[in-house]
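Components:
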Amino acid sequence: MEIIRMEDVSVSVNDGLQDKLIFSGLDLSVSKGEKILIKGRSGIGKTTVFRLILGFTRPSSGRIYFQGKPADSELFWEIRKRATHISQDSDIGEGPVMTLFEEVFSYSANHGKFDHDALDTLLAEFSLEREVLNKKFENLSGGEKQRISIIISLMTKKDIFLLDEITSDLDAALKTNVVDYFMANPEWTVLAISHDPEWEREGVRIIDFEKIISNRKSGKKVD
Amino acid sequence: MVLCFILLLIPIAVSYYFKLQLIGPTLESAFRMAIQLALVGIFLTFVFDLNSTIINIVWVMVMVIVASHNVLKNAELKIQSLIAPLITSFALTNMGMLLYFNSFIIDLANVFDARYFIPIGGMVLGNSLRANIVGINDFCDQIQRNENRYLSKLSLGAEKHEALMPYMRKSLRNALKPTIANMATIGIVFLPGMMTGQILGGSSPLTAIEYQIAIMVAIYVTTVINVLMALIILMYRGFDEYGMFRKNMLKS
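Structure:
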């Protein structure tokens, strides 16, 4: 079943002086349960695709559909309850990690989802000690922050994962662990942006980002 | 009064000696202050003599409009973006507090009596201005500096108000801290203007203190409600239907 479709999407940002084209003519279709790796040069707008899916960036033209319905503001709030974006510099707040967990699970969408056993299992799975929960998030290393962000997202029981270079700060064994984890669940739809070869495995659709965008309309070169 | 103005020779001499280039601004400000206060004095004498409920309410409303305009101007926000809800909120809060204060605390027969309604309205409103500017500035600044954090919370399932709660809490604290500190030092570090005025006017220090305590509580309570309302307005009007901060609301 098709879960996300983008048709001829263009994105421009205003840098305060003029509109700057990020990309145009993006076509993308994602099926439920699919595992996709998006590859491409830095700075060509791969992360913008995730922002489009979550409604954080609005397309300047083109259409976005979620489960066949045109995505409007109401639908984007629904998508955010099912999809989560984890990035390489995930910033989920300040203060003790446990307090941040409590905050996230106090959201009405996450009520009743907190599970102590699942937390213990995930901490072990991603090689973190329980003491990390008492440390301040802002004092953690890049790798620890990434793993805490992954764990918190997994515990909110989402089924669409938008993973933006989440393995960049991890050692080789952990990279494999994380990729294994996201590949294992057939129900999860996973879109990953990464330069790590660990993601290139059987069953993963590899998309060269430059091939799914074009400049049909503007005729300009994508930068 | 002439002897009072002669004192200004001291700052003028300091400015001259240290080449501060403040002689012009000092003279201009002192002149403006004198003219403005003289005009207000004449106007208030007229308003007090007339003591019309309608004129008193209109005058307090003028103060509310000027205050709201001042808050948005100093918070670097485009005036038209929030002015209408801010005026409504300030008017309701300040009028409500004035009516409560005049009816129940000082037990006036006419709660709109110009002699109380206008000066107390001015004190309550004027003293909550700074807190409002700090609160709004702090909130806009946090959202812009920590945009990724806000978006992370949205993508972890937060509704807009849930994701904004930590920012709101921090801005409220930062806005209210100076007023709280002010309450704690009052009487020891400085004697407030209203109390000093009353004592100079012949009231006993105990009566002056009674009024001062009541007015400080009224100022604090109004400040809390005003800042809270301003932040709630910002939460609703400052974000689009997708939950994104309206950056075009900022001046630059």
